[in-house]
Amino acid sequence: MVKPMSQLIVTPRVYEAVLTILNNVAQAQCPLDKAYAQHFFNFDYASQDHAVITQITGDMVRKLNLYSFITGNTITHITSNPAVLFYAWSKIEQQTIPSFIELTQQEIDNVEQLIDTAKHNQSLMDGCPAWLNTLGENELADSWPQERSALALAAKRFIRANLLKTNTVELQKTLEKEHITTRLISDCVTALEITSNSSLFKSLAFKNGLFEQQDVGSQLIIEALDVKPGMRVIDACSGAGGKTLGLAAYMKGKGRLLAMDIEEHKLAALKQRAKRAGADNIETRLITSSKTIKRLKESADRLLLDVPCSGLGVLKRNPDAKWHSDMSESLPTLRHLQQDILTRYSKMLKVDGIMVYATCSILPSENELQVSAFLKANPNYKLINETTISPAQSGFDGFYFASLQRISA
Ligand SMILES: C[S@@+](CC[C@H](N)C(=O)[O-])C[C@H]1O[C@@H](n2cnc3c(N)ncnc32)[C@H](O)[C@@H]1O
């Protein structure tokens, strides 16, 4: 069972908010982050209530199949009996039962009996759907149960200090003045863990570009590229620039950093974020055809291929992904795309240059097996090292990254 952070105060307004957001995710198939964004755009809450809403909704979305088993409602109709749902949540998360919910003795007995039954099925207690359990067992064998349990926990919040403007020690002091408390992370020079419930994005420190929210694994991928000021660097699947901005900070504004993606709106968001971060050596380029890539042949000292993947390493952060698809169609397509990107995009690297292939997955079929297949077909690259960040062992999100060097044309 998850140990609660503290006893949460569930007011009728919090209760209604959780049900609305949950309905949007479970019934309308809205991604959790969008459901939060929509709700919090329309309604204002005190920061304490905001935190309670996201914690309870997250607890429920992480284990929708468990709540479905206990309430007797399908996942899409999980909110049909809200009092039973909240009672079950209080019991599972060891929280105080909201004072205003009313249940019959029979409903209470039923829930308690079903929780006792569920405790004999650890996969159900971990909120793991059958398709994911089979996939995890096939790919990770004995290490899967531990990873499965780790992926069922609430995600911790981490930020990356923007080295263009500050460092972790200085940032920690600045944030304290805004009542945001943090902890230094020994494994990573840019990371702080947020230890208070404070809202980050309303802080002055965020508006001034002193940090970005980012998991430690992502920050370690940035570090692995070992970029230096003056280099020519390509981030070929940059998205909205989570890692591009970190790379820019290590480059100290010197050299050329090209951020590329196939989605224009992501590159537009990157430009906004770069402005706030004070990162002015970033150029964005939309990939419109294979020519965009061919024109950059042998041009990069460093190349990041942060490829599209199943995202199964970051289920703590995006638990809704477990319920929206069983990935039986998307996973083979993704693996094919990953190998295609490795094969074609690696040609942008100069001889002696280093590229990092990265995913936010812990499945070997998206990670080490992709890299070994690439190396077999391309003996002009060599593996320098590879790392899997295990959610079970690290407490962070799950990632994989491999550094490869091009040894000849
Ligand atoms: C894992 S995400 C990247 C996240 C990003 N690097 C970050 O740190 O925030 C993968 C990205 O690859 C992009 N993508 C998908 N197919 C692509 C392709 N063929 N070439 C380049 N980028 C692609 C997606 O739009 C998505 O933004």
TrEMBL record:
Q: Which InterPro entries would you find in this protein's record? A: MeTrfase_RsmB-F_NOP2_cat (IPR049560), MeTrfase_RsmB-F_NOP2_dom (IPR001678), RCMT (IPR023267), SAM-dependent_MTases_sf (IPR029063)
Give the molecular function GO annotations: RNA binding; RNA methyltransferase activity
Give any Pfam family that matches: Methyltr_RsmB-F
Please name the PROSITE patterns in this protein's record.
Answer: SAM_MT_RSMB_NOP
Indicate the segments forming the SAM-dependent MTase RsmB/NOP-type domain, all copies: 147-409
**What GO biological process terms are annotated to this protein in UniProt?**
RNA methylation
At which positions is S-adenosyl-L-methionine bound?
Answer: D261, D306
What keywords does the record list, in alphabetical order? Answer: Methyltransferase, RNA-binding, S-adenosyl-L-methionine, Transferase
In this protein, the active site sits at C360 (nucleophile)
Q: Which domain of life is it from?
A: Bacteria
* Family recorded in the similarity comment: Belongs to the class I-like SAM-binding methyltransferase superfamily. RsmB/NOP family.
Q: What is this protein called?
A: tRNA and rRNA cytosine-C5-methylase
- The organism of origin for this protein: Pseudoalteromonas tunicata D2
